[in-house]
Protein 1
Amino acid sequence: MQTLGLSKHIVAALRTYKIISPFEIQERVIPKILKGANIIAYAPTGSGKTLAFLLPIIELYCRDPSPYFALVIVPARELATQIYKFIHDFGSSSGIKSVEIIGGQNYVTQKSAFINYPNIIVATPGRLSLLLKEHSITRHFFMLQFFVLDEFDSFSEFYRSTISLNKFFT
C-alpha cells in the first residue's frame, strides 16, 4: 500500500484491519487522487472502491488538515453508516472528525454537528438536501476539497425510476 503513495501511518493502520495489498481499483485510482486528479471509476461490488476514495482523502487530510474537507454522498443509510464507521474508527487516530447525515436520525443533532467543523461528511441525498436549505450550513460547503458520489449508478437508477413513475402518474 505504501507504493501507492500512502504514508507509513496509514499503511500501519490498514494492517490492523488485515489490509495488506491493494485491489486493482485502488492501484489505479489512489495515486491519481493523491496527485489531484478527478476520478470517475467503476468496479464490481466488493472490489475495494470505498477505500479507493477514502484512503487518499484521509492521506491528504493528514498532510494538510482543514475543516469541511470532504463530502461523501451515498444512496442508502446502511452504506452511509458503514463508511462513517470506517472513517470514525480509522481516522479518529489521525484527528479526523466525521459526521453522518442520514434520515431517521435527529435533525437538530445533525445540524448542530456542523458547529464542530467536521472534516468528512457522509450523507444521504434526502437529509443532506434538507440541511442545505439552512443557510447557516450551506456556507461550509464552499470549503470542500473532495466531493464523492459513491454508488452513482444507484442514484441514476433511482432518478430514471422516479421520472418513469412521474410520467405514468401524470
Note: The chain has a mean pLDDT of 86.
Protein 2
Amino acid sequence: MNRRTKIVATIGPASEDEATLRAMIRAGMDVARLGLAHNTIDEGLERFHRIRKVSEDEGRRVGILVDLPGPKVRAGNFGETGVDVPSGSSIELRVGEAGSSADVIEVDYEFLMRDIQVGDRVTIGDGGAVLEVTDKKADKMLANVVAGSTLRGRPGVHIPSDRLQIPTPTPEDFVALDAFVDAGVDMV
C-alpha cells in the first residue's frame, strides 16, 4: 500500500551523521528539513550534500527542504550562564542592545514600541519565556512573565508577525536561496 502522507524530519546536530541519516531513511523519512536559523550556509550545505550521498547509497530519493532564517530580532545578552526569569514576575522591555537581566530585556528592534501592543504575548528564546505586555510607555513596556525560563546568550524575540516591520525575505535569505538552488534543493 502506498503512503499518502510524508515523513518530514529536521536534521540537526543530533541527526546529521551518516549512520543516523541512514537509519532515518530506512525508517521512512521522505523529506529532510534543514533549518538555517541557527546554522551558517556552509554548515547547511555540508548537511545537504551528506543527505544526498546517504540517500544515493540507500537507493532511496529523499527530498530536501531548506527553511530560510528570515528576519531576526534578538534580546540583549543574558550571558552564557543564563538568567532565571520566573513565572509571575514583572519585567521591562525596551529598545537597545546592552545586556538583559531578570528585570529588563533590551531588544534590538527599533520599532518595538510601535509594533507591540498591550495584551500581546512575546516569546523570548525558542519556547522559552512567554511575556504578556500589560503597560506601554513612550520608551518602555511592562510585562508579566506568563511562562518562566532560564535565558542565555542573545535569544530570539518573537513579535506578532502581522506587525513586524522587517523586510522579508531578507538579503541574507536571498544569498542562502541562491546557494541552495545552485546545489539542487527540492523545496524552500
Note: The mean pLDDT is 93.
Protein 3
Amino acid sequence: LATLHNLYFYRRLMRDIREAILTDSWDALKAKYANA
C-alpha cells in the first residue's frame, strides 16, 4: 500500500513539475511544496 501511495505521489509531482515548466509557474510550485 505504501508503494502505491509513493508511486501516486511521484507521478503527480512530476505532472505538476511539467505543467509548471510549461506555464512558467515554477516559483509557485516550489512554494506549494515547501509549505506542505
Note: Residues 5 and 34 are 20 Å apart (CA to CA).
